[in-house]
Structures are given as structure tokens and as C-alpha cells.
Write a structure and sequence with these properties.
Layout lengths: L5 E3 L8 E4 L3 H6 L6 E2 L5 H4 L8 E4 L4 H12 L4 E5 L1 H7 L16
Parallel strand pairs: 1-5, 2-3, 2-4, 4-5
């Protein structure tokens, strides 16, 4: 997947469409405020939910998002992998919110 387009978490535009492909418990613990949650296994069935334009794909560390980005590109979606995933997102000082009422964290 070396030809999969990547962007550092610090360089993701503030208005980017961010699709988080992690599982529900990971999402609940902490995610980017305006991200769209579509677990990787649900992408084929939920492809129609993706907004138009460039999609930035994120997971915990970058493995699932790289695979999802490659799959999306093969299916006609302009997708970019967020290098380093949510760990890199947090290290870059990007915002994080939780769904479970606890302090947001990356699982």
C-alpha cells in the first residue's frame, strides 16, 4: 500500500471530511469532533453515506485506514489515509471528544 496517498495528522485541513473506521468502543473513547464513524467492516454497505469530495480516513494507528483508503480508491472515492491514525492526531494536538462522558482518549 505504499502508493496509498497519506497526509500527516497535523496537515489534515480543519474542514476535511474525516471518516473514522475504528470499532464502536474505540470511537466512543475518543474521536475527532466532526468525524463520520463507519467501521471498516461496514464500508461496503455504507459507501453511499460518504460525502462528496476528498475523504480523509483514520483509524488507531494507520493500518486499517490504509486498507480502507485503498479500497475506497478502488471504488471511485477520492480518499487519503491519515498517517499514524488517531495516535498521531492526538500527538499533533488535534481536538478529541468522547461519546461515553469520560475524558477523551485513543484506544
Amino acid at each position: 500500500m505504499s502508493d496509498t496517498p497519506r497526509v500527516p495528522a497535523a496537515d489534515v485541513p480543519a474542514d476535511a471530511v474525516l471518516v473514522d473506521v475504528r470499532e464502536q468502543d474505540e470511537w466512543d473513547a475518543g474521536h475527532a469532533p466532526d468525524a463520520v464513524h463507519i467501521p471498516m467492516g461496514e464500508l461496503p454497505d455504507r459507501l453511499g453515506e460518504l460525502p462528496e469530495g476528498d475523504v480523509h480516513v483514520v483509524c488507531r494507528s494507520g493500518g486499517r485506514s490504509a486498507r480502507a483508503t485503498a479500497w475506497l480508491q478502488q471504488n471511485g472515492v477520492d480518499a487519503v489515509d491519515v498517517a499514524g491514525g488517531m495516535g498521531a492526531w492526538l500527538e499533533a494536538g488535534r481536538p478529541l471528544v468522547s461519546e461515553n462522558g469520560q475524558d477523551a482518549r485513543v484506544l
